[in-house]
Amino acid sequence: MSSSYPLLPPSGPAARALSAPGPLRRRTGPVPTGHRRTVALSAVVGLALAGALGGNVAAAQAASASPSTPGGVTTAFVADAGSNSVSVVDVATGALKATVADVGYGPQGVAAAPDGGHVYVPNIGSNNVAVIDTETDTLAADVAVGASPTAAVVSPDGSRVYVANQGTDTVSVIDTTSDAVVGTVTVGAGPDALAVSPDGSRVFVADSGGGGALSVIDTATDAVTGTLPLGGVPVAVAPTPDGSRLYVAEQGAASLSVVDTGAAVVVDTVAVPAAPYALALSPDGSRLYLADGPANSVAVLDTASGTTTTIPVGGDPQGIAVTPDGSRVLVTDLGAASVSTIDAGDDQVVGATPVGADPAGVAVALTVPAPVVTGVSPASGPPGGGTAVTVAGSHLSGATGIDFGPGKPAASFSCGDQSCTAVSPPGAVGTVDVRVTTPGGTSATSQADQFAYTAADVGVTLAATPRPALLGGSIVYTVTVTDHGPSALTSGTVSALLPTPMAGSSGDCAVSGRGVSCSVGPLAVGASATRQFTVPVGLLTLGLPYTVTVGRSASSPVDLNPANDSASRSCTVITSLLINCS
């Protein structure tokens, strides 16, 4: 987008070195004379461009359809050319959510990635494209391009960004994975606006110099495959959702040219109320919105009937965008330093949000907040996995993965917006972070998301101590339980079934008939606990050995070493005064 105000001096710590381009141009100047045409192009031009402009309509429709993103927030990003910043506006509430400062010198346009994860901002004065991470509303990268970049578009698959460099008559091609320029395409003079076909096969470039023309780039080869002369200076282009038509606005002209992309000819000229600076189609292509800067209004063109209505907005509207669901239209009011929001249902302005100085371009994206994990329950499980864990948090719907530590995906999971149920995979003993990944990103780590793979080696020993007496002799059995780690013992149970006719009693353990059950825990690693039970010898047959075995019958966390889980002692009663134990 161009404007007439002069560039301002760079400010802030991130001010870039300038290449001293000329002043920005608001599109209010006189229309170049002797160039507008309203008739079809010649058959020669049509034949030359038919292959370049043509495309598979069905493929275009399929490419333009994208799945809905759960938990999304519709957000507008505004290039504040006079503030060297980008304003971030919540479309639903009209609130200014954030301001991304020092994006470059004189930001002009904004282009949003299809997944809403990043926006790309060309800066005419610093010859760069700022890449903004919409999850954090911060600068993610700074890509140097050609001189005086004015506009950018993102391919439907999100892999490429095309940037119109007005000062070098080129289009830069940026790879979005590396944020690096991977190609430069020479086009016509003064490229000032561009659009990508819905199927991503072509980029249409409005060449504002040399009498005005439309260059067509084949995205498979990054080469110009045709040039379509126009009757005026093109300032905005908008392809229909099926890719069969292209609307072209020309500087100062109160009309639009309609290009048939299959036949490669101008098939119609549509009168509009005023000369538009920018165009935006509704998602279904039934309405075309025009930012009519000189008229301080937005025109709405019914693309089927050709009729228009006019909506007054703030001063000197420059950029325009439609929300993905078609319910709202956002327009930048350069003269009022605001963004007007229009309800597309009744064509009424429902609000205006103050933004930075001289707002120019605007893009709307369905952004997805990053997931947040606020708790996991239970917070521990065995190293073998299989624990059903409830993960609490927010923005969890649409999860594409849950990891129990790096490279350890959950065995299975299902999610709502505020909770997930995930089955833990096998893991090593220790604590890991449970992280949820959605289209909005991956949850940040915190103490609240920690899950511990735990195991406690329970060691059991048994001592038998004779208590001889003339009457009432007994044997006292002492059970010692030790936690050998590596995790703390939450609880454990050691049990014994006494041989007939033994019967026990205890103040530490539960006794039922010949059964004895002793509970311990919690125990720290290395700690021990003792329990005792007593067996009277009066009922025992003299001279016979009696063997008592105690063993771990349950413990938490899991015990991975059964070798030391039990212990035995044998005792022989010679007389009530003579008891031998080994």
Write the layout of secondary structure elements.
Blueprint: H1 43-53, H2 57-64, E1 73-80, E2 85-90, E3 96-100, E4 111-112, E5 118-123, E6 128-133, E7 138-144, E8 149-154, E9 160-165, E10 170-175, E11 180-186, E12 191-196, E13 202-207, E14 213-218, E15 223-229, E16 234-239, E17 245-250, E18 255-260, E19 265-271, E20 278-281, E21 287-292, E22 297-302, E23 308-312, E24 317-322, E25 328-333, E26 338-343, E27 348-354, E28 359-367, E29 372-377, E30 380-381, E31 388-394, E32 401-404, E33 412-415, E34 419-423, E35 430-438, E36 441-442, E37 450-453, E38 456-467, E39 474-486, E40 491-497, E41 510-512, E42 515-520, E43 528-536, E44 545-556, E45 566-575, E46 578-581
Parallel strand pairs: 30-37
Antiparallel strand pairs: 1-2, 1-28, 2-3, 4-5, 5-6, 6-7, 8-9, 9-10, 10-11, 12-13, 13-14, 14-15, 16-17, 17-18, 18-19, 20-21, 21-22, 22-23, 24-25, 25-26, 26-27, 29-31, 31-34, 32-35, 33-34, 35-36, 35-37, 38-39, 39-43, 40-42, 40-44, 41-42, 44-45, 45-46
Describe this structure as you would to a colleague.
The protein has three domains: 45-64 and 74-367, YVTN repeat-like/Quinoprotein amine dehydrogenase (Methylamine Dehydrogenase, Chain H); 372-453, Immunoglobulins (Immunoglobulin-like); 456-581, ntegrin, alpha v. Chain A, domain 3 (Immunoglobulin-like, Sandwich). Helix content is 3%, strand content 50%. It is built from two helices and 46 strands. The strands form eleven sheets. It has a six-stranded antiparallel beta sheet with strand order 41-42-40-44-45-46, with no helix packed on it. Strands 30, 32, 35, 36 and 37 form a five-stranded mixed beta sheet that branches. A four-stranded antiparallel beta sheet has the order 3-2-1-28, with no helix packed on it.
